[in-house]
Amino acid sequence: MKLLRIVLPIVLLFTLVLFTVTAQEKKPKKDGQKAKPIRALLITGGCCHDYDTQKDILMAGISERADVKWSLVYEQFEGKDHKIGIYSRKDWAKDFDVIVHNECYGGVTDNAFVEGMVKEHTDKGVGAIFLHCSMHSYRAAETDEYRKLIGISSFNHGKKHPISVKKLNAEHPVIAPVPGDWVTVEGELYNSAKVWETATPLAEGTIPSTEGPQTCIWVNEYQGCKVFGTTIGHHNETMSDPVYLDLVTRGLLWSVGKLEK
Prior knowledge:
Blueprint: H1 2-14, E1 17-21, E2 38-46, H2 51-63, E3 68-74, E4 98-104, H3 111-124, E5 127-131, H4 145-150, E6 152-153, E7 157-160, E8 164-167, E9 188-190, E10 194-195, E11 199-206, E12 214-222, E13 225-230, H5 236-239, H6 242-255
Parallel strand pairs: 2-3, 2-4, 4-5, 5-13
Antiparallel strand pairs: 1-3, 6-10, 7-9, 8-11, 11-12, 12-13
């Protein structure tokens, strides 16, 4: 098993694994032609989470709800300072409508590497989804560019406990269908140290003995990029919750301009 963990990322460092699921087309174009699927790239891997299972939960769950063609970069290395290979390639985001970040490499300190990844987002204007530990990725870097793209700065979290979610902007189409009394199955609440001025908080979460409510769901518009983020999603049980998958799917659709009120 240890050998597999070492070899697998090396293969995926050079190869995008394509995974395509076509969901039922709910609203065909007026001319009768089927709309093109959303081209999504999931980037995942890192410490502290079951990313091998979560990649399947996300791709299958979202594709049950929207017409998405998936590509996958999965780099599973020990430690927190691995730099995902695709970020160093030229024009790595150009073939995608949205990038879904579910990675956890918080020990990277290379500012130029981080800023280059952000620049690819902003230059291409590609949508972005940031889930759970992607908020803590690259937190050791001094640059704020990654945090500005996300819309939230977070550096630590509270104890593992189901999170009580309170909607702050109930009319926003991303959050509107979420139950008003939603409590996550499991949870690990991240502390939101700063909400950047371009971000719009949609919900806050609380757990017993927390320092107070923390922004846990939001959208952000930064230099031409539409971004959806949530710090919820540590456990597989939470990611498998239909409420969670509905929420992330709507965030993804919003980020590519395909979510109607």
